[in-house]
User: Fold these one by one.
Assistant:
Number 1:
Amino acid sequence: MDKLLEWDKELFLALNGLGKDFWDPFWLAVSGTVIWIPLYALLLFLLFRKLSLRNFLILLPLVVLNVFMTDQGSVMLFKEQFQRLRPCHVEELLQQMRLVKEGCGGQFGFISSHAANTFGLAVLVGNLLKPHHRYALILLLLWAVMVSFSRIYLGVHYPLDILAGGLYGALCGFIVLRIFQRIRR
């Protein structure tokens, strides 16, 4: 386990070290929420157009459930249990890494809520839109990868935080997708 955590730290430093001041505003925006509001609105619009009104109304609370599972689950089931410090809270790393913004969020980082949230949404919505928009799932997964990478770039998550968050989020998205498929008409 120690070897894995050491490898994770080394990979974090390598990826985080790729950053350049020029790109900082871009990755800060990618990591934010406000910039993605138009995407969320577009996804809701596409789902509204492709699903019956009844199925769309069934889906809305399930999307909320998915977000709750990924967001709160990442904190209650993982962060509070594992209590792995974010790299930006590890004194010995601060001189070796790039911390792009002031402050770095909560104390613990395993697993990444950003990764869980984006992968959960990508798997759920991407699979629902895939029959109508061939590349929807791939594009949404690429979006989730980009948001997730931003967290390493900014210096607030290790790669394993991202990987575990992405897997957990994808699992949540898949579970909610199956629930929707069982109750829709």
Number 2:
Amino acid sequence: MQRLHQCLLIATFLPLCWLGMQVVHEVGHVVAAWATGGTVRRVVLHPLTISRTDVHPNPHPIIERAAGAVIGALLPTLAWTLHHWLRWPGAYLTRFFAGFCLVANGAYLLAGSVTRIGDPGDLLRLGMPAWPMWLFGAITVPTGLRLWHRLGPHFGLGPAAGRVSRKAAYASAALLIAVVAAELVAS
């Protein structure tokens, strides 16, 4: 039964992190668009697509495009810091999610600045140099990997031999179902 809970936790928490990362990334675009006088026309969040935010008019597109990755990395990191500081149980889950968002957003800017796709491609076309994206990735990717360091036992790896929190496994599964359902209904 231990391995079943371990598999449930890992198999649901990874896609939950992916969908959650897309949500906080798009929150960054929305907040920046509103803060700079832009109008958000549409936010696409669907479990089977890559998320996006359509802004028109967009008076400050460089700020709006960059804010997806910046806020998308910062919000989960702040959430984990607060969770850790308050010593609430399950802080390893928000720590993993923060690491996931740091790695994903940093790798996105690094790879996208080379391939000229997505937000990084837009930023380059708008005249932003590549070096700030490289610097962002050079900071966030190793920081995210550092946050993941020594989390394996919480996910039943290594000496934990499959033992995980049953509550965490069921909560992760329930949250994944809820997020997928919400995204399907909203799209």
Number 3:
Amino acid sequence: MSLVIRNLQRVIPIRRAPLRSKIEIVRRILGVQKFDLGIICVDNKNIQHINRIYRGRNVPTDVLSFPFHEHLKAGEFPLPEFPDDYNLGDIFLGVEYIFHQCKEDEDYNDVLTVSGDAEII
């Protein structure tokens, strides 16, 4: 199914092709490539706003996930009855926050990929 990556920030350059490739690898390893997944890259201001609204914490963060199937335990996969239910949900990546947390020699794209996929699954 589809993987949608949206970059709604301009603070940190994002190379979508390598990010997409790495996310697809993780999805294949986890066996969830038949599920839709949304990845939304945002800056500190926006991730802080979302964090305040949904978690009551007025600070920026690295990853916020919004699973489509809310009542699953960690590591449990949904058993969709309808085609539209093949959806993992959306992951908001605080790209600016993640970038500043990484050491200079780390590839923050790898951190983005693993953080986001692990959060929703």
Number 4:
Amino acid sequence: MIPYNRNTAILLILFNRPDTIRKVFERIREVKPKKLYLAADGPRNEKEREECDAARAIVSCIDWDCDAIRLYQERNLGCDIHCYQAISWFFEQEPEGIILEDDCVPSLSFFGFCSTLLERYRNDERIGHIAGSNYQFGKKRGDGSYYFSNLTHVGGWAGWRRVWKNVRCDKNYPLFGRLNYLSSLPSHAPFQTHWNKYFGMANHNPDFCWDFRYAYTNLVNNRLSVIPNYNLISNIGCSDKATHYIKDYPFADIKNEEIDTILHPSFICPDVEADLYSQTKEYNSSRESLIKQDDVFYLKERLNTVTVNNHIKPKIPRIIHQIYEDMSGPTPLLQGISQSWKELNPDWEYRFWNKKDIDAFLGMYYPDLIPIYQAFPYDVQRWDAVRYLILYKIGGLYVDMDYECTENISPLLCETECAMGMEPRGNAVLRRMPYIVGNAFMATVPGHPYFKELIDAVFHDNKDRGALYPERSILDTTGPYMTTRVYDNSKYKEQVSLIPAELVAPLTRDEVLKVMDDEISEGLANKIENSFAIHYFLGSWYEQTKK
């Protein structure tokens, strides 16, 4: 086994998973670092506090000579923000070190591998990252114990302050995109659509995609990563409880290995073949699979045919609800979009709700909830909250004002008592979630128990959801994060039909912008043609978070 220099500091990032953190911490205990940094995110709600406390209790059992430095959050920051802040905090105090997450179990050789190479490449600007994971499935690259790569694998890794200090949103990123740099980089060119998407996210919002921002920093500075020829990290966290859960993730649970010595490679050059191999493994997996457009077309045609031939009528009341609280009324653009629901669904009643209507409704049916309703700090939270109350009491279909109907909606809602429209997969990717159960397209019979769960979550289960980040707080308390969380934990989820985004929200925000600029490719045209409705994600509520 490669000897570990105990003076090399370790950062352990944890949250709410005592089952996995126990295994990671046991490995750290075996090597006994002299400095251990512990960064723990806070609970998302009171129910989760017990799990967070259990995870923290495990890492409190330090029974060797060690300086333990802690950064424990009382409120939940979310995975991306928490990781980025924790690593920044670590490198503010240490010039170099090892970083582990709570579901990445290292081999004992990992620690010696990292400490040895941190020292070897300490002042070598050609090298920006040391990985612990190997995704070559037994294929050895080069003539050493490790090879060099243009990719930056994180989870279990080591790095330097000299690199991390430059990890930030790049104001020059638009130029990077215009130069089409990735198309000329052999290791990235076949997957440039994927990389451009994530690099764009990472450089436009500091709260998202810290790992891609880190990879981008190394790439544009022409730095290479060290990748071991043996897998030294086992990712045991790919369960449905994981923050970034991906079904059938190809790199989950790869057994970690031990090595006795390090043989340094003869040449410092990126192994393009290895990079292409690992990316092919990852991006051809179910992570990138989407419903094919011909399958969506088939599904749509089947729904229409079955409904017409069998004269099936929805169990859900034929009432379309839309809300616009401002008494001056919707903008001409929104009025035009809204008109599509009346024109294509003439056999449905249309109800428009303004502030006067909402106040009367609450006073008649939910007077006890008015104080909580009025206490929400943002208007959009009230707009969210009242839609659940309206549907629970009256039933019908609720759609946002920036939603256009493209087909009669009846076939979509036949034979169901409760239906929730999914958000586009691209939105889920942006939010680093496996999927998002939206709240902009919802239909139900009156009194459905799932909507009772939504109401309870909005009005009675938000005491521990802080407003450190307004946009996230809104999504988490009354918006799609909340509807997704309630669905995941619902006792009645088998009674809820999830409508694929391809049918009711086929376009991401970026694709909507292309449509508005008349940049409609054949692929976008097919998506629109195969849908029943289109959500334009105009997002006027975002301005509220800046006030």
